[in-house]
Specification:
Elements (H helix, E strand, L loop, with lengths): L1 H4 L2 E3 L7 H7 L4 E3 L2 H7 L2 H9 L7 E4 L3 H5 L7 E5 L9 E4 L2 H10 L5 E5 L5 E9 L5 E3 L3 E6 L2 E6 L6 H18 L3 E10 L2 E8 L9 H4 L4 H9 L14
Helix pairs in contact: 2-3
Length: 243
């Protein structure tokens, strides 16, 4: 029914089943497409993809209890994250040693997980980009993000980092969108560790850290998504005031 009644369909939540998007795409324009969403909604696939484009922090895949014993010592203390259906601090647990990691793994239903090394962060950054069906792509200014209990609390724009690091974050996000053949609005979150940029995760949607674009940019991230769905040219992402 949705496919019959709509000319174009999008989502603002990455946990919509990719197969639903794939079914809808048989009858109407869907953005983002199912293949892009399938990468972003599975941390194991996402880590492998990001590692091929930009650096990521040290991690190990945990599918069974024995994988915890086999994980390198340098990953502890760390964070154990469910591969699927985790967001805003949900589906993840800080762990200090292997017994804690095994307990956390079973507490999350012994589902596939990623064990990530606990990093000494200088800050967290994110970049929102918009890419249309013609392959045209624009990047918004870099946001510096602060979290409370795993949930985004404050974004500062422009981010208080060097111009070179900000440009690197924008270029990395554009490269990720290109490699995914992504159509729509996309956000990539980064950690800054020792002056180095490490990709954390992809959000295949308008993002919390891009809400500043409503008031501080010429074209908001939401207008970009509507423009892409309507096959209109992308708007100007320029920042006209700090946020």
């Amino acid at each position: 029914r949705l496919a019959r009644e709509c000319a174009a369909i999008t989502t603002e939540f990455e946990n919509v089943p990719a197969e639903a998007s794939r079914r809808l795409a048989r009858d109407c324009f869907v953005s983002p497409d199912a293949d892009s969403v399938a990468v972003a909604q599975d941390r194991i696939r996402e880590k492998a993809f990001l590692a091929g484009v930009v650096g990521v922090g040290d991690y190990a895949i945990v599918r069974v209890e024995d994988d915890v014993a086999a994980a390198p010592d340098k990953l502890l203390p760390g964070v154990l994250k469910r591969s699927r259906f985790g967001y805003d601090g949900k589906g993840q647990v800080r762990v200090n040693d292997r017994p804690e990691t095994i307990a956390a793994f079973h507490a999350m239903g012994a589902e596939p997980c990623v064990l990530e090394r606990l990093l000494d962060l200088e800050c967290e950054l994110s970049v929102v980009v918009a890419r249309d069906v013609r392959g045209e792509c624009v990047a918004y200014p870099v946001a510096e993000n602060r979290h409370e209990h795993g949930i985004l609390d404050i974004s500062i724009v422009p981010a208080r980092v060097s111009a070179a690091l900000a440009a690197q974050a924008q270029q990395a996000t554009l490269a990720i969108a290109e490699r995914l053949h992504y159509v729509g609005v996309l956000c990539v979150e980064f950690f800054v560790v020792g002056g180095r940029l490490l990709a954390n995760e992809i959000a295949p949607r308008p993002h919390n850290s891009g809400h500043y674009t409503i008031d501080a940019c010429v074209t908001s991230q939401f207008e970009q998504q509507a423009r892409i769905l309507a096959h209109l040219p992308l708007g100007d992402p320029a920042l006209h005031c700090a946020a």
